[in-house]
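We treat protein structure as text, and this decision shapes the records that our systems exchange. Because each token names a local backbone shape, the row as a whole describes the fold. For reference, a complete record is included directly beneath this paragraph.
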Amino acid sequence: MKKTNSTIQLVYGLEEKPRSVKDAIIYSAQWVMIMFYPVVWGYSVVGKGLEMTGSEMGMYMVRVVFIIGVATLLQTLFGHRLSMVCGPNIIPSLAIVAAFSVGGKEYALQAFNAYIIAGLVVAALGALGLISKIGAVWTPLVSGSMIMMVGLTTSTTGVSMIANQNATAPFFVGILLALLCGYLSLKGKGLIASIPVLITIVLGYIVFIAMGKFDWELVRMMPTFTIPKPFPYGLSMPPVDLVVTMIIVNIFSAVNLYGNVQGYTGILGVEMEKKDEVRYFSVFGLVEGVLASIFGVPSNTSYGENLGFLLLTKVASRVFIIVASIVFIVLSFFGKVGGMMAAMPDAIAGAVLLGVASTLIGIGADNWAHAPKFETREIFIVGFSVFLSFGLNFLPDTFFETVPRLVGTLFKNPVIMVIILVIIMEQVVFRDKKSDAAA
């Protein structure tokens, strides 16, 4: 990495070590708290989307925690070498849920083995330097539409989970928790501002336990100590169409990672070199893709939300997140921790998703607004792409029975569809010839 000019005054630089024991404890604990955010994604999108229950959900959550810790640790040590938390990526997560919709649970579970192949493919493309070339078409319209779609999709999932028990007490508690999550994100000060998700989760657990609406049986059935199990869904060769789908999905996930890293390094004041990109794409493919899939959890990636964490905390030191990652790995060997997470009331997870979705929708709109030009052409491109992609996701099952499963899986993934549509419309159908001539 080459140093440039940082846009913020850092409390701790990238390679700085703790100046006191107090700082070491506080900032490491802060990262542990932040890392609970991706846990909710793993639970609510794929765990609930595949209708996991009981001990199956408990052991799945153990593996989610394990991979979050491992992926974050290895990217920080050997990949991009930045303080960026990793977690289940929404793009492959929705692809797995889409596979469930078009082919059932057995077909969806084969997506994890398909993703092993996809991870190897992307690791090879990254090593050859081909992934970063796609960055040429990763414009503000594409990134804004992707973030907007993640927000819209997340909000519908969140509202559905909050309303799971109809208009009863959990529904109203969930709405209040979502408002609290958003309020703390906007108005919180210091450490509080960086952990609104954890505060919402903890308070939600307290409320639902007090209401007698917490499933303690799921916690009791989990072993005290456990070991994350590889290949939990068997080791069979997945269908070709599923392999192709997951390769496409993983390429878009890799481009998403590229955009997140570029945004983070821009704030931090460093510039990635060719060798740095090869490293973090290799770790992305082999660890966040292949290893995650071996353990039966969605592919991970370094979250775009890390940009917000950096701006908020002004702490970029790798030491603290390395310690937090190790803590997370250790937690994954305690079965009761997985049981507590698996027993999370739907309204709590929904509240977190709804609170986060509100921010994501705003960030997506802000990306559009900061495009070099946002006039009639650009408005039509993003409007058409967003509404078509979002609408396809809600078509009845009878429609998807009339198309190949590969097409159906892509149509059911609004994030992938909006990226494809915006790129095609911006670069091909409505290509701005005047901008090309000026360039």
